[in-house]
Write a structure and sequence with these properties.
Elements lengths: L7 E4 L7 E5 L18 H11 L4 H11 L5 E5 L44 H26 L2 E9 L17 E4 L7 H10 L6 E3 L19 E9 L14 H17 L1
Parallel strand pairs: 2-3, 2-4, 4-7, 5-6
Antiparallel strand pairs: 1-3, 5-7
Helix pairs in contact: 2-5, 4-5
Amino acid sequence: MTDAPQTFELLPGAARSPVILHVPHSSREIPADVRPGIALDDAALERELDHITDSHTARIAEAAAGLAGRTPWRFVNRASRLVVDPERFPDEREEMTAVGMGAVYTRTSHREVLRPDGTDPEPLIERYFRPYARAMTDAVADRLAATGRAVIIDVHSYPAEPLPYELHGEGPRPPVCLGTDEFHTPSELLTAARKAFAPCGETGLDSPFSGTYVPLDFYGKRREVGALMVELRRDTYMTEPGGPAGPGLSRLAASLAALVDAVSG
């Protein structure tokens, strides 16, 4: 067990909604006990947060939830991904470990030192990663029990220009990138997403980021758990890096709400 403060929040939706809007990377918050383990000074840390945070994605999800005909559930990370990244594998399966960005980052988005070499990731994984994973697993199980299915829509953003940490940054960078999983992303979910986001410009597939998030208890096992990652290119709704949101936010929220409505059943 852990006595860490809860750094995530499940915001209830409609009892019969199968949809969970998952927002893992929107926060800039770093708990006081985590800050000493980060090697950057305060100014450099703020710059890194500008680059690595999916700014305003929690606002987009909140606005979409308010617009949707059947309110989706929202699972929101209230801590920065520089604490732990809940979407990374905490072991050798994670390809981003190659650039020091596994579940606990040791390098920045520009491949500079974030945590000293030899940092043990296990205390952060135990204190923050595992409780998050358990809570998200429970949230999906609850939707399955209530509705017979669950649809995880992973809400992210990405910069218009590649950052040095990206392993697959040489491909297309459309206004909306849809990340898919062969098992968990049925064709009708993908079709609904393409239609919903058509007003926002071109939608691309799995470039520059691919895959989607499903808790491991269900991954590759339960087809009733559908999942799609929505990556929004930041210059379409905000000033990069880390600046204020613009009018594009409302358009994206409306499209996300249209997707929620299309898959809510």
